[in-house]
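During the no-cost extension, the postdoctoral fellow (Dr. R.K.) reprocessed legacy sequence entries with the updated structure-token encoder. One reprocessed record is reproduced below for audit purposes.
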Amino acid sequence: MKFRKTTKNDLQAIVHMIADDEFGKKRENYKVPLPSKYIKAFENIISDSNQELIVVENVDAEIIGTFQLIFIQYLTYQGGIRAQLEGVRIRKDQRGLGIGNHMIHWAIKRAKERNAHVLQLTTDKQRPKAIKFYEDCGFVASHQGMKIHLD
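Re-encoded structure tokens follow.
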């Protein structure tokens, strides 16, 4: 497996993975060509040095996974850096092969390289398999997350 930063040529495959599950089908707008909102978001992400959009390739250079790391500087924890893991996806035909474990370990290593003191993520409570997977990777449900939709 190869991990690398995303290029614009990868965007179609990434959005397809994001849209290819029960939640993504309800909230994403995957089509060819991609709607301009995805392209604008991609441009914003890659222009920000505190964000890394990563793809995972197999030996045939096919994109089989993706995730985004966001590094958040704050004043608490003595001016610490928190790494946020977002949009973890594995291509449907590649799930259950151990790719997710490699992705998480790579993300942990990268967060340490960027001097983050914690790596956090959120996952929907309606995704029990994902919750179990993250727990098996060492994540602990230590806080109660909350949000409000603004649209």
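Residues 99-113 form the longest helix (15 residues). The chain is about 35% helix and 25% strand. The remaining legacy entries will be reprocessed before the final report is submitted.
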